[in-house]
Amino acid sequence: MRRGLLPVVGSRVVAVERPPCPRRPIRFTPRIDAFRRRVVGRRIDSVGRRGKRVMLGVEDDQWIVIEPRMSGLVLLADPPTREHLRLRLRLAGNGPPELLFWDRRGLGTVRLFRTGELAREVDARLGVDALEVDALGLRDRLGASRRAIKVALLDQTRVAGIGNLYAAEILFLAGIDPRTRCDLMARPQWRRMAAAIPAVLHEAIRREGSTLRDGTYRNALNDPGSYQNRHRVYDRAGIACTRCLEGTIRRIVQAQRATFFCPVCQLRRGQHRSVTIEIRGDSPAR
């Protein structure tokens, strides 16, 4: 999402609109009139992210922070529907004419901060970025918890950037049962998981995310991602495991979210013979 929005850098905001929406309202701060006064006429200097938040750096030391959550999209093209459009920034310059935030379920947020506020209201509330954490960092942040590891991975205050789908894929690649309690995990499991996190996330980013059967997720140009074609376990319940060739993918519910895993090669203790994952700086872990 961040990469797809890069063409807006250098554009100037000429108008800010909150289209009428009959659906559940999103969290939007400050009020639209104050938001408009602070942003209109300013240049967009950067597009970044913090965990699963899109960060638009606006001149005069300001940041537009968009958190799409489960059903939100930040787009440079026509949205999937008009009635779920939540924000339109009209732009002038050599880039796209507008930037849109669309959210079907109304779970997302749009907030405007000064840099000092950003550190207090966003950075301080998020854990280490998932693409920057190592095995020791994972163990330090999660190892004392009695929660199941799959549930703990979704806690953005501990590790920021892992969503439900990717947590299931990460644990499969690492050969770890998603029901394993964090405080019962062994050091080799933390190492395998630390190697699996960037392997899964970088591949998903290259493939522009996963567009599931409901079609909700789209990239910045309103096109589908392709990582769904690479899923190893997610949304594959009842299908034979392609790694161990012995198990059948199961679906369970953890913390009200669907989890998919192979009960044969994802172990609570030890490591199944079929699991091989490259750990940076080491030979393949078996």
Description:
This protein has helices at residues 32-39, 115-121, 135-142, 149-153, 164-174, 187-206; strands at 12-17, 27-29, 44-50, 53-58, 62-67, 72-75, 85-92, 98-103, 109-114, 128-129, 159-160, 250-254, 257-261. It is α+β, with helices and mostly antiparallel strands and 286 residues long. It is elongated and about 60 Å long.
Poorly predicted tracts of residues: 279-286
Oligomer: single chain
Count every beta strand, where a strand is a DSSP E run of 2 or more residues: 13
Strand content bin:
15-25%
Distance between the termini: 35 Å
- Specify the number of helices: 6
The strand order across the widest sheet is 2-9-5-4-3
Class by alpha and beta content: alpha+beta
Q: What is the approximate shape?
A: elongated
Q: Give the biggest beta sheet.
A: 5 strands, mixed
H/E element order: EEHEEEEEEEHEHHEHHEE
Q: Cα-atom Rg, whole angstroms? A: 20 Å
